[in-house]
Specification:
The complex is a heterodimer of chains A (450) and B (323). Chain A has 450 residues and is α/β, with parallel strands linked by helices. Chain A is built from 19 helices and 13 strands. In chain A, strands 1, 2, 3, 6, 11, 12 and 13 form a seven-stranded mixed beta sheet that branches. With 323 residues, chain B is mainly alpha-helical. Chain B has helices spanning 15-18, 24-62, 81-88, 90-123, 128-140, 143-154, 160-167, 179-207, 211-219, 224-252, 256-261, 273-283, 287-321, and strands at 64-69, 72-78. The chains are: A alpha/beta (450), B mainly alpha (323).
């Protein structure tokens, strides 16, 4: 009886062959997988291309209703540049989610999107981490001179310009002309007057909510906060953006006023959950007397689906009593950036040059889009200024930027909006929220701490 | 007695019968095992790359100064400062506290409700199938979608809850904008979603319980409550243990519900550990501290599971063997 000898040679040989086949196919599968992985490549230098190219444009919806500006611009661009096709990718509406998505995509080496529409506060972060192409390397000074003053500085970091201003935005005070006239109220010029008027209208049952604005714990909350805070004369960072100069006493005053809006009934308690869509909906449904929102709100309030067409007035924001009028408006808006891994740099630059030019800027300025153009020639054109009410009062407004020229801006903004929201919700007293905000900003700048 | 008595017939272990224990089958087994490893190698390597590598890399990141650029991560020197930052941050303490009491409360409610539903389902004879299907609808909905739906219910201006409270005249609740109410709302939505999961697990345990015990207790005249406490519950302990373990694991990593409903607000009151990790990693681009948050969370969960299993070990082991 055989003990310990393996089975018949043929069967053993067959096993060996099976083993070999399995090993070979496994190796083949793995190497195919490795080959298929995308490799991060640096952007190629521009090359004049008459060949057909296709680029991907990542942009969040610009307006909540009405025709899509992005699609109009793409059509106009493809007519002017027949060899380039633009594929629109609709980005998240929430600017924080949008930013996180892009940062993950770009740091992963993705070659698309080629061009992305980004917030004006991103150059500090995107420049510091290399998430956007420095446009000043590829575009001449004459390109940047066509923009309104201050916008290019806002799109720069460390001496390089990262974004091409696409459209600018700022906060306005919208009000219901009919309600104020019926109540014999003048348009408020101070925050205190606004609070009194709004509370009175709510109490009289004329309107459900008095004053709606964006108090949620997100980037938009920082915008609203900056407007109130700048009205007290305060600043957040020093001129070199390296240290905090936050005035805790002034911040306490601001937070006390904000919380007072809710407790006096001027603003609904829900305002600490409001972002732009919620505030806009409340106003365009006729449920609010006053609205703080961006430039697009005028168009939306006067277009189909709104219950307040023709009843809306717009003025610069009020300020605190005793301070020079008008109040400060926070600078918003969006720039166009290029993905450093993009394979179509020349086409991307062509797209950016077109969007910054007079044709595209005029399209975006005209109704029904009514976005504030960044091209200075278009902005100062009298026929453009006469187009809609926000444009007409642009020159009367005072602007304040957010402290975004530093790579730590995300944490600074978080410190501002979470503590503002806590004070607004009543879960923290204004003074403790103000101190927490100050220490949060200090922590952000020192690059330590969560 | 004859000295040559016949030895009792012992089972003769012939060499042929002994052979299966050594030699040929051992080699065959080893061949088959090698073949099995080779067939599963591609899948195992893939799983390893997708799960083990990121876990290991995250642990490495937590011990380094990390800078993220367009070309990926730059590791700039080993350090323990990430852990120091996390463990001393008030925000982390708050997130840990919130996540812990959220887990404890929601798991207690879910297990109690789930067991009740399972007891009812077990008695149903005709409609058990359709009832289970209806019960599973909340569990089968993707959490982000059901969170958005809950957002419409809880919305302070045009939400369903707002409407109902107008009908009942109880004012305008701002649920998601008040810290305590937001937490309750989150727990409510979580219980709605995951109680079916507990029900299914407990039901599976219930149907396996031996009927003789119940018949005996009926003969002895035990009340329903006594039957439940003295017979059902002790026998269900291993099943309940599994359900609680799963739920603790899931609830401790809660992310999508608070992210969609409150974004971690108002202020930071509903920021769970997972949301804190997300904010640190993807909003602040602080990958070192963010990885430290993730690793400490994983360690805490591991610790909780080990403690829990120790406590339940005896019962789980015994019942599993079918004692």
């Amino acid at each position: 009886m055989n003990q310990g000898t393996p089975t018949a040679p043929t069967r053993h040989g067959r096993l060996r062959r099976v083993q070999a086949v399995v090993l070979a196919s496994a190796a083949a599968a793995l190497s195919l997988g490795a080959l298929a992985a995308p490799s991060a490549s640096a952007a190629r230098l521009p090359n004049s291309s008459s060949a057909k190219t296709s680029i991907e444009w990542w942009a969040s919806p610009i307006s909540t209703s009405g025709p899509d500006l992005r699609k109009y611009l793409i059509t106009a661009f493809e007519k002017a540049y027949p060899n380039i096709t633009v594929n629109l990718v609709s980005a998240p509406n929430n600017t924080d989610t949008n930013e996180a998505d892009l940062e993950t995509t770009i740091s992963g080496g993705a070659t698309t999107p080629d061009v992305f529409m980004g917030d004006v506060i991103w150059p500090g972060t995107f420049g510091a981490h290399g998430f956007a192409v420095p446009l000043s390397k590829y575009l001449p000074k004459s390109f940047f001179n066509q923009f309104a003053p201050g916008l290019v500085a806002g799109a720069s970091y460390n001496g390089q310009v990262y974004g091409a201003p696409f459209f600018q935005d700022q906060g306005f005070l919208y009000y219901r002309k009919d309600l104020l006239t019926a109540a014999h109220m003048a348009v408020p010029k101070t925050w205190q007057q606004l609070e009194t008027d709004a509370a009175a209208l709510v109490k009289a049952g004329k309107v459900k909510y008095g004053f709606v604005w964006e108090g949620d714990s997100y980037e938009g909350g920082t915008c609203d906060f900056m407007e109130y805070y700048a009205d007290t004369g305060g600043q957040v960072l020093n001129s070199s953006d390296t240290a905090s100069v936050l005035n805790v006493a002034d911040v306490t005053k601001v937070l006390t006023f904000m919380r007072g809006l809710v407790t006096s009934g001027a603003s609904p308690a829900a305002v600490d959950t409001f972002q732009e869509p919620q505030a806009m909906t409340a106003f365009q449904d006729g449920q609010a007397a006053f609205l703080r929102n961006w430039d697009y709100a005028y168009g939306v309030a006067n277009s189909k689906g709104s219950d307040v067409i023709g009843k809306v007035g717009v003025v610069p924001l009020p300020t605190f009593a005793g301070q020079p009028e008008p109040g400060y408006s926070n600078i918003g808006g969006w720039n166009l950036y290029i993905n450093p891994h993009s394979k179509n740099l020349q086409a991307d630059l062509d797209f950016i040059k077109f969007i910054s030019g007079t044709q595209a800027q005029t399209i975006e300025a005209k109704p029904p889009f009514s976005e504030i153009p960044t091209n200075e020639a278009v902005r100062s054109n009298p026929s453009i200024k006469a187009l809609n009410a926000p444009f007409a009062i642009l020159s009367q407004t005072k602007l304040v930027p957010r402290p975004a020229q530093t790579p730590d801006y995300a944490k600074i903004s978080e410190a501002i909006y979470t503590n503002m929201n806590a004070a607004l919700a009543g879960s923290a007293s204004p003074s403790s929220a103000a101190s927490a905000m100050a220490s949060g900003i200090k922590t952000a700048l020192s690059s330590s701490g969560l | 007695m004859a000295s040559t008595e016949v030895a009792p017939q012992a089972p003769v272990a012939s060499p042929a019968a002994k052979a299966p224990l050594v030699g040929k089958p051992d080699l065959i087994q080893r061949h088959l095992a090698r073949l099995g490893w080779m067939f599963t190698a591609p899948a195992l390597i893939f799983i390893g790359l997708v799960t083990l590598f990121p876990i290991a890399f995250a642990i490495v990141l937590s011990f380094e100064h990390v800078n993220v650029t367009a070309n990926g991560f730059q590791l700039q020197g080993a350090t323990l400062s990430n852990y120091h930052t996390v463990l001393t941050a008030g925000l982390w303490h708050h997130a840990l506290w919130f996540t812990t009491y959220y887990t404890v409360i929601s798991v207690i409610i879910e297990v109690a409700l789930g067991t009740m539903f399972a007891l009812v389902l077990e008695r149903l004879t005709r409609f058990r199938g359709p009832m289970m299907a209806i019960l599973l609808i909340p569990w089968s909905l993707i959490t982000v979608i059901s969170a958005e739906l809950w957002g419409y219910i809880y919305n302070a201006t045009y939400g369903v809850l707002d409407d109902l409270s107008h009908i009942f005249g109880t004012g305008e609740p701002v649920v998601l904008g008040t810290p305590l109410a937001a937490t309750v709302a989150l727990i409510f939505a979580d219980v709605w979603k995951t109680t079916p999961f507990v029900t299914i697990i407990v039901l599976a345990g219930l149907v396996m319980l031996p009927q003789e015990l119940y018949e005996a207790s009926e003969v002895d005249g035990a009340s329903g409550w006594k039957t439940f406490w003295s017979i059902t519950l002790p026998l269900l302990r291993p099943t309940l243990g599994i359900a609680v373990l799963f739920r603790i694991l899931q609830a401790f990593g809660i992310f999508d519900l608070p992210y969609v409903l409150t974004g971690g607000g108002p202020g930071n009151s509903t920021t769970s550990l997972a949301i804190l990790g997300y904010n640190t990693l993807f909003l602040d681009l602080d990958f070192g501290p963010g990885a430290a948050v993730a690793t400490t969370t994983a360690l805490i969960i591991l610790l909780m599971c080990v403690i829990f299993l120790r406590v339940f070990k005896a019962q789980v082991g015994k019942e599993a063997v079918g004692a």
